[in-house]
Specification:
The protein is mostly helical. The chain contains 8 helices and 4 strands; from the N terminus they run H-H-E-E-H-H-H-E-E-H-H-H. It has helices spanning 2-14, 24-47, 64-90, 95-113, 122-177, 196-199, 206-212, 224-236; strands at residues 56-57, 61-62, 183-185, 191-194. The strands form 2 sheets. A two-stranded antiparallel ribbon has the order 1-2. It has a two-stranded antiparallel ribbon with strand order 3-4. Helix 3 (64-90) packs antiparallel against helix 4 (95-113) and helix 4 packs antiparallel against helix 5. The model is unreliable at 205-210 (pLDDT under 50).
Length: 238
């Protein structure tokens, strides 16, 4: 039942490899659904074991039902591996090759489970060994998605921020080194930014400029008529 659930899940996810992060309700619903399935399986095995199908008969080996079920799971995993192979070739998502490997190894595992004669022979051992390898590859894919990918995105954003800061620093140096006065103000005329050349207009400090000085008054615009003309132009957006 567990291997069948894994095979069906892998095949279903192969059709939707890129999904938006689920909401809290979706995560809770998925957890509740899987919990319910596991509780049903446990309840069936513990309290109704005699009513379940017989998969293995002592001295007779696997039952036909068990063999058909194993072949069915093998087919699902082969189809999943083929799907992930196609999707991985068309995508740069580094988690998809890991899932392709997990599905392929799981298919080999199921193939061994269709062939063994007794429960402790080498084929059954190889089937379980390959299953452990498959789950290890799945955990690696989960690590890529949940740990490595967020850090890669964070590193990319950090590099982008460094480039922006460097561009701003270069622009700031250019403004400071030019001999042309440059003043930035809001619509009300409050000074927000000024370069070294513009600060020479007054003897006050830059902090005083930024907090007190108005673009539409002295010392920047001592003529009231000119100040009103500039104010009207700024408000009009021209």
């Amino acid at each position: 039942a567990a291997r069948l659930l894994v095979a069906v899940s892998l095949l279903a996810v192969s059709f939707y490899p890129q999904l938006r992060p689920p909401s809290a309700w979706a995560r809770s619903g998925s957890l509740a659904a899987y919990t319910l399935v596991n509780l049903v399986v446990l309840w069936s095995v513990i309290f109704h074991e005699a009513d379940l199908p017989v998969f293995f008969i002592k001295n007779m080996g696997l039952t036909p039902f068990k063999v058909r079920l194993e072949w069915f799971i093998t087919g699902l995993l082969v189809l999943s591996a083929w799907r992930y192979h196609r999707v991985a070739r068309q995508s740069e998502d580094e988690a998809l090759p890991w899932i392709f490997g997990a599905a392929s190894v799981a298919a080999l595992s199921e193939f061994f489970f269709t062939q063994y004669g007794i429960s402790n022979d080498s084929l059954n051992f190889l089937g379980h060994l390959y299953k452990f390898v498959s789950y290890g590859l799945l955990y690696q894919a989960m690590f890529v998605v949940s740990v490595r990918r967020p850090y890669q995105r964070l590193a990319a954003k950090t590099q982008s921020l460094l480039k922006v800061n460097e561009a701003l620093r270069t622009q700031s140096l250019a403004l400071e080194s030019t001999a042309t006065p440059v003043v930035v103000s809001d619509l009300d005329g409050r000074v927000l930014l000024l370069n070294r050349a513009s600060s020479e207009i007054c003897t006050s400090s830059s902090s005083y400029f930024e907090n007190k000085l108005l673009m539409f008054s002295a010392p920047f615009t001592p003529d009231p008529t000119v100040a009103e003309s500039i104010r009207a132009t700024v408000i009009a957006g021209n």
